[in-house]
User: What shape does this take?
Amino acid sequence: MRGEGAYGYEQLADSNLKLPAGAEMLWYIIGNISHMSDNTPQIRETGDGSHTLWLAGMQESYHSMHGAITESKHVFIHHGLDYFRSLNNTGEIRVLEVGFGTGLNALLTCQYSQDLKQRIKYTTLEPFPLDWNLAARMNYGDLLEHPQISFWFKELHITSWGQIEWLNPYFSILKKQETIQDHNSAEHYDICFFDAFAPGKQPDIWDLKVLEMVKRMLVGQGLIVSYCAQGQFKRDLRTLGFKVESLPGPPGKKEMTRAMLCS
Ligand SMILES: C[S@@+](CC[C@H](N)C(=O)[O-])C[C@H]1O[C@@H](n2cnc3c(N)ncnc32)[C@H](O)[C@@H]1O
Assistant: This one.
């Protein structure tokens, strides 16, 4: 389950095998354990009734099995966007998301921007985009209450990669089909939604060098928010000079992490 150690990844990561970097690593590892089971994402219902995707070969889900929508709202909307707004009176919030995945965080952020009339410029990275035919079967449109929610969800998925699109007067999105390791942007961001697969599954993404890159892209009281509460992750953030908080996690998870840039 997400965030919980499972076989395969840790054993490979702890071994002395020389692994390729970046996106190749995910497929390298999946390839190595592909004999165990199917790697096609499967839709699963989580504790709050909302869907997530399950990768059987990786033994990993895209969200908490205790509740996908509940987790996204708790970690990224409440402890990310709400908190940032409580400290900053800003016309526009610039978000960088690591891992677009199902688009759930983007969808909730789009709704948030419309509800609060808050301009949000959303940049999201995803090396392995999902097929819309799969995403279309997920139930976020049925569970989230907004007349435009299904329209937004489809637009989020079918909109072109590498092009800025406006989904409502307050929300623009730029989807980039690339890894965080390759995201060499001159752009600046206020909040990073760090929503990669768990460190035990994809250790290269949680590397100090990657976190340092993210730090360089943040400005002001820039934040990194993540469902992950791993000790090494928090130590690395402190090493980089962030003020790190361990906050109560969503259902099923004791803690989550929020780190603020200190000037
Ligand atoms: C935990 S899921 C993300 C969940 C997503 N935020 C959502 O709302 O559905 C992790 C995502 O990160 C993507 N990913 C894998 N390697 C990556 C990399 N090197 N850089 C950025 N994203 C990556 C995966 O393909 C997957 O979609």
